[in-house]
Amino acid sequence: MQIFTCPFCGARDETEFRFMGEAGKQRPEGGRAVGEAEWAAYLYLQRNEKGPVREIWMHQPCGELFLLARDNVTHAAEPGVGLRPEGA
């Protein structure tokens, strides 16, 4: 079992978290003009690199999104960084 650290609630069991996507992945611009192949690639293709990755996760009990840097080989994870704007 892995322990992730929510920046708002502290260290918690991995079962409380939901993966939301790769950090830095850019949504295609153009709305309805974007073709099906480009949308499919955006939605379903992941880099799936070995080693350090940056991902967006949600802590389900508090509903907050945060950035998590982790190593997908060793499973070492740094404490999460909140995505909430300063002062919000």
Structure description:
With 88 residues, this protein is mainly beta. It has one domain: Folate-binding fold (2-Layer Sandwich), CATH 3.30.2270.10. Helix content is 10%, strand content 36%. It is built from 1 helix and 6 strands, in the order βββαβββ. The protein is globular. The relative contact order is 0.26.
What's the number of structural domains?
A: 1
Distance between the termini: 32 Å
Strand order of the largest sheet: 3-4-5-6
> What class, by secondary structure content?
mainly beta
Give the count of helical stretches.
1
CATH class: Alpha Beta
CATH superfamily: Folate-binding superfamily
Low-confidence stretches: none
CATH architecture: 2-Layer Sandwich
Per DSSP E runs of 2 or more residues, the count of β-strands stands at 6
For the biggest sheet, the summary is: 4 strands, antiparallel
Organism: Alsobacter ponti
Pfam families: SoxD
Protein name: Sarcosine oxidase subunit delta
Secondary structure elements and their pairing?
Blueprint: E1 3-6, E2 10-13, E3 17-22, H1 36-44, E4 52-59, E5 64-71, E6 81-82
Antiparallel strand pairs: 1-2, 3-4, 4-5, 5-6
Structure keywords:
88 residues; SoxD_sf; two-stranded antiparallel ribbon; 10% helix; 6 strands; Sarcosine oxidase subunit delta; 36% strand; mainly beta; globular; SoxD; 4-stranded antiparallel sheet; Folate-binding fold
